[in-house]
Amino acid sequence: MQPRSRRNFVKEATGQAAKSARTVVIAGVPDGLLHNDVMTDILMIHFQMSKNNGGDVEEVTYPTREKGVAYVTFEDQEVVESVLKKGEHRLEDKRLSRYYPLKVTRYCENVFSSVTSVLNMSVFKDEFVLEDLIREIKKKSTALSFGPLQSNGHISVQGPFPAIKLLRDFLLLKAKSLPEKDKREESKSHQRPRRRLQQHKLTTETSDFVHGEKQVVVLDTDIYHYMKHFSSRTFLVNDDVVISGVTDGGITTVYIENAGSRSDAGQVLRVKEKIENESMKLHNALRKERIYFEEHTRDEKRRYQWVCESLKPHYPYVLIIPYDTHIDVVGYSSEILEFAKEVRNKIQSLFQTR
User: Fold this and answer.
1) 203: confidence class by pLDDT, cuts 50, 70, 90
2) Contacts of residue 173, Cβ cutoff 8 Å, sequence gap at least 6
3) What is the DSSP letter of 253?
4) Is the pLDDT at 66 greater than 80, yes or no?
5) Band of the pLDDT at 180, cuts 50, 70, 90?
6) Dist CA 321 CA 328 (whole Å)
7) Label partner for 83 (CA 20 to 30 A): which of 117, 304, 338, 353?
8) DSSP code of 88?
9) Taken in order 216, 277, 225, 121, is the CA torsion positive or negative?
C-alpha cells in the first residue's frame, strides 16, 4: 500500500472530519432484544422522523464496542444540531414492547469518557469521619460515580479523567494537612503498592508533592502513549532533567526531576507545564475506539494486527495499541471513525473468504 500524497491526505482528512461532525453517539439502545439489523432499522427510522428533529441518515453503525451504543451519521450537519436540541429522545416501535429513552451526544464529545480508580481513604480515618468526607467529595465531584465504602477504607470511583485528576488534587491537599505522624505512616504503607489491572490506586501519598526540585504529572495512560509516539518533543529535554513514567492501568504518573548540577527548579516546572498543556490539548481532541477480536486465537490476533497495520499509511496519526482480547486505536475523531469501520469491514471480508 503506497503512502498518500500530502494533498490527498489533507483532502481525505477534511472529508473524515466532516463525517465525524455529522455523527452523533446514541446511548441507551436496548441491547439483545432484537436482531442487530432490526435494531439498526429502528434507529434509522427514529432519526429520520421530523417529530424527532431528524433528517436524512447516511448510515447507522450498530453494534459498536460499547454495549447499547450506536453511531448515527446524517447527510447534513444541520440535522445534528436539530437532533441535539430535542429535549428527550424516546425510541418507540411496534417491534419493541415499550419505549426506551436515548441519550444523544456529538461524536467528538466524551473522548476518554471513563477512568476507574480505587481511592485509599484509610489515611484520613483518624482525622475525619470517612462517611462525612465521602459526602463532601461527592458534592465537589458531581461528574463522578462512587462505589460503596469498604471496611478497609477503599472506595471505587469512575468518571472523566479530568474530574478524577481534580479529585486527586483535592485529596492531596487534604493529606498535606495531616499531622506528620500520619504522613510517615502513609509513606510506609506505599513501599509495597499493589497493582490493579485497568485501575489506579489513587492514594493520598504526600510524596507526590514537590520535594526540592521534583514535579509530578498524572496523565491518562492512552494520552501518555500518544504523546510519547507523536509528541516526543514534549519529553525531549537536556541532560539536566530526567523524565520517567510509571503506568498503573488507566493512569500514568510522570516524574520530572533535576539530574544536573546546573539545573534549577524553574526548569523542572517549565517541563511540567509543557507536558500538562500538551496532554490537555490531546485529551480534548482525541478519541479511542476498542476493536474486540472475534476469536481469541493467536492467528486471529495476528489477523487483526495485520489489518490495522495495513491501514496505518492511510491514517498516519492513529496509534494502535494491541492487547490479548482487543485492539485500542487512539487518534483524532475525524480519523478514528473511518479507521475502525475499515478494520471491521476488512476483517469481515477475510472471514467470508476463509
Assistant:
1) very low
2) none
3) E
4) no
5) low
6) 5
7) 338
8) -
9) positive
DSSP-derived letter for residue 76 is: S
Q: How far apart are CA 40 and CA 93, in angstroms?
A: 12
DSSP string, 231-245: -GGGG---TTEEEEE
Q: Which helix (H) or strand (E) holds 63?
A: none
3-class state of residue 320 by DSSP: strand
Out of 93-102, 111-120, 228-237, 272-281, the most confident range is 93-102
Average of per-residue pLDDT across 116-137: 84
Beta bridge partners of 218: 253
pLDDT attached to residue 20: 74
Give 291-302 pLDDT, tens digit per residue: 777 676 888 888
* Rounded Cα distance, 43 and 60, in Å: 7
C-alpha span between 343 and 304 (Å, rounded): 8
**What's the maximum distance between 2 C-alpha atoms anywhere in the chain?**
75
Helix (H) or strand (E) holding 219: strand 214-220
> How is residue 100 written as a grid cell?
426506551
What b/e string do you get for 322-345 counting C-beta neighbours within 10 Å, with b at 16 or more? beeebbbbbbbbbbbbbbbebbee
Mapping DSSP to helix (H, G, I), strand (E, B) and coil, where does residue 33 land? coil
Please report the domains of the chain, with CATH numbers, ordered by start residue.
6-106 (3.30.70.330), 111-208 (no CATH), 286-353 (3.30.1360)
- Give the predicted TM-score (pTM) of the model: 0.57
Alpha carbons within 13 A on the beta-carbon side of 254: 25
Specify the range with the lowest mean pLDDT, choosing from 46-50, 193-197, 248-252.
193-197
pLDDT tens per residue across span 132-146: 889 888 888 887 888
CA dihedral 138, 144, 148, 149 (to 10 degrees): -60
- Identity (one letter) of the amino acid at 12? E
Give the Cα separation of 251 and 165 in Å (integer).
Answer: 10
Q: Which three cell numbers stand for residue 248?
A: 498503573
Query: Is residue 279 within 8 Å of residue 328, measured between CB atoms?
Result: no
Query: What 3-state DSSP class applies to 56?
Result: coil
For residue 26 the three cell numbers come to 446514541
Residues 224 and 252: beta-carbon distance below 8 Å: yes
Q: Strands 115-120, 200-202: parallel, antiparallel or unpaired by DSSP?
A: parallel
